[in-house]
Amino acid sequence: MSIRSKGRIISLAWPDRTEPRAKAFPIVKRLTEDRRGVLFVGDNLTVLDHLIAEKQTGASLIYLDPPFFTQRAHETMPRKGAASEVAFSDQWESLAHYLEAIAARLSRLRELLLPHGSLVLHVDTKTSHYVKVLADGIFGFDAFASEIVWRYRRWPSKTENFQRVHDVLLRYRKDPSIAPRWNQGYEALAASTLKTWGTRKQRAVVEEGHRKRSSSTEEESKGVPLGDVWDIGILAPVSKERTGYPSQKPEALLERLVNVLTDPDDLVLDPYAGSGTTLAVAHRLGRQFVGIDESAVAIATIEKRLAEKGVLLTQVPAGR
Ligand SMILES: C[S@@+](CC[C@H](N)C(=O)[O-])C[C@H]1O[C@@H](n2cnc3c(N)ncnc32)[C@H](O)[C@@H]1O
Question: Is 147 within a domain?
Fold first, then answer.
């Protein structure tokens, strides 16, 4: 887990760095009726080792949204005054333990990625710089593709710091020498562009090797090719999408990733499934999915969320 740079080695190291071992738990699996979706219940390290041992088909997209090292337990936010309960714990002995846990999962996830595939790791600014160096060591410096800044608006609050209004999504490719799965995405044209140019596609007029001006074509513009700063609202407390599960991400965020980085029928894997946002989006967009979560509250939330969309999960007898 190190990067070679002209014969010198760069790595993120700390004293007594250890490799966590997967626990020997039975594999508990739920399957959708059409067999295009699988949900595993349990520690993802155990499940990932199982998937590697079983030589399961690889994924085109792996999205992981692990706990953010908040050092607290996260509770559900039920509607209409019902009691909340702990959904998952994000309490760690130290940052070193947290990073060891992430590194162990990343190296296994890399094995489960297809050569054209992408892994997108969702973190926040507390850990993103450590995790970037860790992931560079596992995937290779050249496999790093982008840092997506997810910018959201939240209730404004004055503190003696700039309010944090973004998360970080680090994208890695399995094999940077192979063309990635890529369906170009677009954002709406800016109001100023629309005012000046309307919705027609612009063409650069180049004279003597220099761009002199733009001219309008007859073709309708598809918009601006997606950049790496995404303005997507967080889920409002009254949003229909809300399940009450803590740290639920908006479907719009996952929709972008799934649409750009996968084709229909591709497999999407989420080892920290939570409320099942990735699974619900993958299913809606005609992709196959594998989800993993160790929290009973998460599993119940996912089952309910998918059932509301007519997707029923049934338990697979042990050993199958
Ligand atoms: C931040 S939440 C994911 C939220 C999700 N993206 C969503 O939109 O609902 C992290 C999830 O990871 C799960 N988790 C944490 N450690 C895990 C582990 N070792 N194995 C499986 N699941 C784990 C927690 O139970 C929690 O549901």
Answer: yes
pLDDT above 90 for 180: yes
**Host domain of residue 201:** 191-225
**Whole-number Å distance between alpha carbons of 126 and 7:** 31
Q: At what angle do helices 277-284 and 296-308 cross, to 10 degrees?
A: 30
Model pLDDT for residues 107-128, shown as the tens digit of each residue? 999 999 999 999 999 999 999 9
Regarding whether 119 and 253 lie in a shared domain, the answer is: yes
Residue 71 CA, chain-centre distance (Å), reads: 21
85 CA → ligand 1 middle, Å: 15
Same domain, 199 and 66: no
Same domain? For 108 and 197 the reply is no
Look at residue 319 in the predicted model and tell me its pLDDT.
63
Ligand 1 mean position to 57 CA, how many Å?
Answer: 23
Ligand 1-lining residues (CB < 6 angstroms): 43-44, 65-67, 88, 245, 247-249, 272, 274-275, 277, 292-295, 298
* CA 64 distance to own-chain centroid: 4
Cβ-contact 289, 266 below 8 angstroms? no
Judge whether 192 and 181 are in contact, CB under 8 Å.
Answer: no
Q: Report residue 220's pLDDT band, with 50, 70 and 90 as the boundaries.
A: confident
For 61-95, write each residue's pLDDT tens digit.
999 999 999 999 999 998 777 899 999 999 999 99
224: number of Cβ within 10 Å: 13
* CA angle (277, 279, 284) in 5-degree steps: 95
Q: How many domains does the chain have?
A: 2
Percent of the chain with pLDDT strictly greater than 70:
99
Tokens coding 282? 């993958």
Q: Are residues 66 and 214 in the same domain?
A: no
